[in-house]
Each structure stands twice: as C-alpha cells, then as structure tokens.
Amino acid sequence: MPLSLPSALLSALDDYVVMREAVLAQARRDLGVSELEAAALARIAEEPGIRPSNLRGHLGVTAAGVTTLVDRLIGRGLLRRELDAEDRRVNHIYLEVDLDAEPWVALRRFPRDVDAAIRDEPADGVAAAAALLTRITERVRSRA
Known about the structure:
- The chain has six helices and two strands.
- With 144 residues, it is mostly helical.
- The chain has a two-stranded antiparallel ribbon.
C-alpha cells in the first residue's frame, strides 16, 4: 500500500536526514574529528581569524571549552593561533588545513552533492519544494 502524501514527504525528509548524518559521521570518523571539532573547522573556514570568544558563541561552549578545543586542534596541526598586532591580549584562529582539498573536503561533500543534485532539477519544482518546506517549518515553529 502506498504511503499517504504527508507520510511520503515525512519519510523522504527522514531519509535525507539519516543519509546526511551517516555521510557526515563517516567523514568525521575518517578524519578523526568530533562533531564539535568539525563544526569549529567549518566556522573558522567561514570566518578566518575568528576570535575564540566569537567561536565560543557560535559553538555554544564555555570559554574553557573553546580554549581546550582550539588547543587540541592546534596540537594536531589543524589550526594556528595568531596574536592581534594591536592588542596582544587578543588572538585570532586560522585553519592550517584546506577544507576544499582532500581529505578535508569530505566534510563538505554531502552538501555540495545535494546542491548539485538540486541544480539538476527543474527550477519551478525546486522553488515549490523550498516554499513547501518553508511553510511547514513556519507552522511547526509557531506551535512550538
């Protein structure tokens, strides 16, 4: 018996989430980074030179937690810390790896593959799907 349309949509969304998490978890395992470390690397890639306090706010960890995380990633050669030229009390964090090159690109491969698959679909269908998901999300949010 075929699924109802709401059930089919929910099933498709569940499949997407499961696939996304499985692919990203495998990439993190292969690279030896935790979910929090991967999130930190991604944020630093978006904002090179980020201050630890801004990284802390983005990741939702304590000051001590971000210090430990950054120190650990520096120790592994994945990040570097530079002191601010004007204020020596301030430091900035930079990537030492290229998230667009192998093997690190694995952390970005799934969203890029999804983006490519979406671009292969008719624009009107993509627009309709995006609008539908936006409306559903807004309805659920208003009930929360």
